[in-house]
């Protein structure tokens, strides 16, 4: 049986809306956690890694942030093949509840002053749970939406995943900003930082409710009905599609470096390196992210019209040319110029993020899409994404050069130009392995 998505025929709008909403909410929860952690990284350093050196505490906190990414490839190796054998929706229900459990656990762990060395140990364990579940989340969500969309609107619909990502960051930033403004420093260190982590519980339960109501993606249903579900998707993905995995890793490199540089590292960079008040920097970043949320679907739709490669090449070229000027604006001391600098970095980032969700899964055939994408995405994220805040902070601290974040993203953009040029254009074309080919 040939699916609607494979034939390019219109689908029931309510089915599409539920699919996009359920996938985007999981993305929102994942990035809510990463955003909150980034915004309270200094407080977490104080609570779990007390030190006479503020820089050392922050580095330790970022190291705990990076630990979660060590197990993301393991999560991808487990959840990817499960999604290719059992279906996307079942695995996505598991990942969202596991992720919310890990996030809640962070908010419940006593500090170093209460239980000593067990505090950072338990923090790392909770981060490992988050990282393991995240290993199956983004790959599954993007695969699910891409396989539920028509060829003509795949870019627009998949871009709502990025909307969910930015919504999670923005929600985390708003909550942390409100707590920072409403509580004293002592109250924030004592209990205020825990509040946003605990909120992940009800968010996760709501996301689980949405996902349990979903049928599987249209493309996977077609694969099942044709009796073509792979018995060994991981073996096939690695053995037959390793070139696609390497290509995908190169694309993910710039996506993750841009995201973690601009959205995860910048809050602490503005406050700790440039001396900008934490509340002010968070408010400005939230404003920029709200603008990015509005642009994500626009850029997704644009990629349906002019192609994915054109938008991605423009973003990488922009990072190479404009990163240093943007960071100069951040350091100018002017609020207006600060906003302009962040807007430049935000625009370039959303040009990548609004298009990648429709680009990356389409690299792989339906039989091995979840496995291949999860492996490539999580290995690249583990190597270059989660480590970015730690590496950049170390580069800034050791060199004393405040432009290191700009140089870092410029290097990643230059590398990413190669896989972008090598990839095949996927806009308005059937997915690999679909009956429409």
Describe the structure.
The protein is mostly helical. The protein has a single domain, classed as MFS general substrate transporter like domains (Growth Hormone, Chain: A, Up-down Bundle). Helices cover 80% and strands 0% of the residues. It contains 22 helices and no strands. Helix 16 packs parallel to helix 18. The longest helix is centred in the middle third of the chain and has 32 residues, at 242-273. The protein is globular.
Number of β-strand runs? 0
Distance between the termini: 14 Å
Rg, Å, rounded: 21 Å
CATH architecture: Up-down Bundle
Mean pLDDT: 87
Query: Helix and strand string, N-terminal first?
Result: HHHHHHHHHHHHHHHHHHHHHH
Q: How does the helix and strand content classify structurally?
A: mainly alpha
Q: What low-confidence regions span 5 or more consecutive residues with pLDDT below 50? A: 1-10
Beta-strand content? under 5%
Principal-axis shape equals globular
What is the number of domains? 1
**CATH topology (fold) name:** Growth Hormone, Chain: A
CATH class: Mainly Alpha
The named CATH superfamily: MFS general substrate transporter like domains
Compute the number of helices. Answer: 22
**Helical amount:** over 70%
Tell me about the largest β-sheet.
none
């Amino acid at each position: 049986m040939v699916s609607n998505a494979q034939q390019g025929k219109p689908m029931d709008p309510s089915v599409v809306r539920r699919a996009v909403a359920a996938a985007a909410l999981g993305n929102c929860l994942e990035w809510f956690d990463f955003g909150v952690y980034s915004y309270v990284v200094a407080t977490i350093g104080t609570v779990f890694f007390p030190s006479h050196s503020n820089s050392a505490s922050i580095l330790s906190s970022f190291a705990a942030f990076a630990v979660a990414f060590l197990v993301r490839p393991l999560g991808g190796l487990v959840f990817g093949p499960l999604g290719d054998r059992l279906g996307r929706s079942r695995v996505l229900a598991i990942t969202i509840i596991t992720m919310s459990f890990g996030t809640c656990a962070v908010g419940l762990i006593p500090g170093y002053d209460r239980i000593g060395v067990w505090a950072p140990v338990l923090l790392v364990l909770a981060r490992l749970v988050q990282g393991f579940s995240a290993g199956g989340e983004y790959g599954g969500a993007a695969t699910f939406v891409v396989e539920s969309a028509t060829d003509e609107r795949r870019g627009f619909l998949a871009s709502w995943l990025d909307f969910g990502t930015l919504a999670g960051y923005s929600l985390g930033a708003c909550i942390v900003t409100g707590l920072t403004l409403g509580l004293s420093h002592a109250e924030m260190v004592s209990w205020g930082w825990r509040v946003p982590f605990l909120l992940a519980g009800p968010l996760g339960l709501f996301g689980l409710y949405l996902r349990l109501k979903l049928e599987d993606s249209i493309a996977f249903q077609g694969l099942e009905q044709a009796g073509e579900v792979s018995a060994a998707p991981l073996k096939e993905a690695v053995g037959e599609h390793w070139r696609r995995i390497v290509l995908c890793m190169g694309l993910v490199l710039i996506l993750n470096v841009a995201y973690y540089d601009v959205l995860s590292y910048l809050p602490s960079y503005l406050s700790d390196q440039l001396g900008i008040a934490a509340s002010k920097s968070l408010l400005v970043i939230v404003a920029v992210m709200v603008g990015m949320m509005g642009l994500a679907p626009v850029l997704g739709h644009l990629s349906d019209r002019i192609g994915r490669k054109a938008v991605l090449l423009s973003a990488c070229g922009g990072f190479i040319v404009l990163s240093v000027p943007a960071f100069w604006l951040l350091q100018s001391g002017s609020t207006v110029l600060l906003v302009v600098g962040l807007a430049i970095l935000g625009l370039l980032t959303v040009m990548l993020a609004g298009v990648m969700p429709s680009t990356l899964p389409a690299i792989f055939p339906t039989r091995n899409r979840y496995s291949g994408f999860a492996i490539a995405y999580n290995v690249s994220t583990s190597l270059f994404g989660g480590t970015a805040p730690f590496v950049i902070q170390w580069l800034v601290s050791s060199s004393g050069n405040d432009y290191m974040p700009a140089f870092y993203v410029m290097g990643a953009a230059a590398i990413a130009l190669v896989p972008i040029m090598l990839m095949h254009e996927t806009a308005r074309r059937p997915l690999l392995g679909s009956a429409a080919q």
